[in-house]
Amino acid sequence: MNKKHLEITVKGKVHGVFYRVSTKAVADQLGVRGYVKNGDNGEVLIVAEGDNASLDMFLDWCREGPEHADVISVESNEGELKNYRNFEVVKKNFLW
After folding, report:
1. Annotated catalytic, 20?
2. Which of 8, 69, 82, 89 is a plausible cystine mate for 17, CB 3.0–4.6 Å?
3. Is pTM, for the whole model, over 0.90?
4. If residue 1 lies in a helix (H) or strand (E), which one and from where to where?
5. CA distance linking residue 15 with residue 9, whole number of Å
6. Is 38 assigned a catalytic role?
7. Are 43 and 14 in contact, with CB atoms under 8 Å apart?
8. Could you tell me which CATH class the domain 3-80 is placed in?
9. Which residues 6+ apart lie within 8 Å of 52 measured at CB?
């Protein structure tokens, strides 16, 4: 099964609405691995790895977000596969 690595930036009202926790729940459900963290400019940054079908469903969810989110845009770029073992919510900032 082909896996791919996506670096996703979600912009809009995505802080303080349980976006990161909800993202982890959806990722776990879909078998997506990687991490999610808050960005410095009010966005949410996600690194996600999985098969095409799982990542398509995951991106669809990212465009909606949890109930109180107001997503304005979702950008994704493919990157090098890192083979994460699980999906984590990262509390402190570090570079991609």
Report:
1. yes
2. 69
3. yes
4. none
5. 13
6. yes
7. yes
8. alpha beta
9. 2, 4
Cα–Cα distance between 12 and 14 in angstroms, integer? 6
User: Which amino acid does the sequence have at 77?
Assistant: N
| Chain segment 69-91, per-residue pLDDT in tens | 999 999 999 999 999 999 999 98
Angle between helices 52-64 and 19-30 (to 10 degrees): 160
Residue 70, both tokens: 């107001």
Closest CA to 95 of 52, 49, 47: 47
Can you give the C-alpha Rg of the chain in angstroms?
Answer: 12
Six token digits for residue 56:
């398509």
Catalytic residue among 20, 33, 41, 52: 20
Taking only the tens place, the pLDDT of each residue in 4-56 is 999 999 999 999 999 999 999 999 999 999 999 999 899 999 999 999 999 99
User: Among the options 33, 38, 52, 77, which is catalytic?
Assistant: 38
